[in-house]
Amino acid sequence: RLQQPAASQPTDISGLTVWLDANNLYGTGVNPADQTALTAWVNMAPGSPVGNFVNAGNYPYYNWTTNRMNGRNFVHFWGPVFCNANNLGNNVTILYAGRMSGGANQRLLGAGNNNFLLGYWTGNMNVSHWANTPSQLVGALDYAHHIFVGTANGATAWAYNADGPEWQIVTGALGAGPNGLTLGGGNGGGYQTETSYGDVGEVLVFNRM
């Protein structure tokens, strides 16, 4: 079960490997103008252990003035994908804040080198799929913003959370976590596949359950 740590910043929590924040896109505290086309999203994890996220095709854009997510900025995806080529493995916890915006409703968080996804898939919501395992849960899609969490212990258990409550814990043979984490799409056969129209406000990844 996820525990609430006594921390004020993600960097206060051990094992942080990815921190993307649309309120601080470049890690400098200075953001671009609204609807700027983005070529990269800077990973603010200490030492940036898995590097930044870069575009795989056209460019997503940044939005901070209209239809904000709970008063916060976001990166809008409309077919372009941000990706990171590192294999994050299956001893991992992934959290992100996102929503679909209508149009293409495939994957908002996936993987370019294997069949991992979290949150959304083909017009459905509350879907969790660790590569090489059956998809867990399927629910009706909406266009509100949500926080999705996937976590696994690297061996025999993984769990799915949405907006706080723990929906499901699975034990048994564990599938693979994201190899080449992607935002805006991404399905095993390449980064620019099963893309979506949607928004992402923040992404956190830790190298542990």
Description:
With 209 residues, the protein is mainly beta. Helix content is 0%, strand content 38%. It has no helices and 16 strands. The radius of gyration is 15 Å and the shape is globular. The mean pLDDT is 86.
Largest sheet, strands/sense/barrel? 8 strands, antiparallel
Helix-residue proportion: under 10%
The sequence of SSEs as H and E is EEEEEEEEEEEEEEEE
What is the 3D shape? Answer: globular
- Work out the helix count: 0
Overall SS class: mainly beta
Low-confidence spans: none
**N-end to C-end Cα span:** 9 Å
Observed structural traits:
single chain; about 210 residues; mainly beta; eight-stranded antiparallel β-sheet; five-stranded antiparallel β-sheet; about 40% strand; globular
